[in-house]
Amino acid sequence: MAYGQTGSGKTYTMMGPHWENETSILNSSNQELGIIPRAAEELFRLIQEKQQESHFVKVSITEVYNNEVFDLLAQDGSGELGVKCDVITTKDGKTEVQFLTHEGVRNATDVLDLVKKGLQLRVKHSTLIHDHSSRSHLVVTLSITAHCSHSMGMARSVKSQKPLKTKLQLVDLAGSECVGMSGVKGAALRETSFINRSLSALSDVLGALSEHCSHIPYRNSRLTHLLQDSIGGDAKLLLILCVSPCQKFTAESLQTLGFGTRARQVSRPSAKKRNPTLCNKSK
Fold first, then answer.
1. What pLDDT does residue 273 have?
2. 159 labelled as ligand-binding?
């Protein structure tokens, strides 16, 4: 998750400098790759090493804009991409976006083709700080299902074994914004209000987690409700702070560092370990 003031380089950090080019992002040098292409490459590298398991990977791309969630891979009745959808909590306590589109992928290139498609639909406006300021939070979710492969002689004893399911969420947050500096008006001013409120809700969630409160206010924002599984539970959250080198943005940089300090104070029990299976044992 990349967090920081608008114009501080969050999308650059997550995607790299050449994501808008027609050529594949993966053609860039390793030094220029952003977090999302690096993560996609690493995921499929690890999958290739797991010869004893078969894996199925699906991608979904959502945008949180003005506290509404949009599926950027879905089409409405007129063929327009970007369909509004609801976030719910299932009976087992998991967060789910209803009727969300999932596209199967076979490699990192497939992942990035979908991500570029989603980024082109993302809401952007020009401000005094940034010519192409992202006005929404972008969430790329890779859902992975692993099935353990067994020999015929071992299959009977593991019929009841369930596949392992997990997900990796890669988040490019919209930037926090000082209205006086960005000079936004009208609809853009309304967007700024929703952005700052959702980031404040994210800070409140991290604060409640760090203080081990009995109630965590995930539902105060669609952003935190959508990311509940990745922020809480036994998930691991990596927060990347992006700050501007300009002296005039010192106050915003200090606010970003304060957010990071709050995030570092969050501690949770160790993640549950996967139970050993027969595919990890030799006969």
1. 54
2. no
